[in-house]
Write a structure and sequence with these properties.
The chain is mostly helical. It has three helices and no strands.
Length: 147
Amino acid sequence: MTGEEDPPVEQPSDDLAPVAGESRMPGEHRGGFSRLPTGPLGITGMTAPPEPSVAPSTDVWSTPAPRLRSVLSGWALGIAILGLVVSFFVGWAFPLGLVAIVVAVMALRRLVEDRAMAIWAICIASASVIYSVGWLVFAAYSASLFS
């Protein structure tokens, strides 16, 4: 098609209003709000309690002290259980029981530790030491070391 064969351009209909002035760019401010929607609000009035206290407050506000964690009793119980399981198979597991007893006694001396868990650790560690000593005595008799 060439320029001579183009159809004629239609005139706009009467229901469209002509644009007055320049067209606005999208997003351009069109008036209305005088501040951003997230802007600070003005203070309209001061408020106070109706009858303020005459005596000064004796309340002391402070952050709470960090909570101490009880970890020694848990470690003692874990080492004691491991020592007991190992002592069922070999006699050289008594150092685990001794370490568990020492850690459990240290846990009993601290105020934040779980005392029941530490006592269980001592009992289980003692059993692991007894089993380990039993294995060592059995091995000594088997090797005729005592006769």
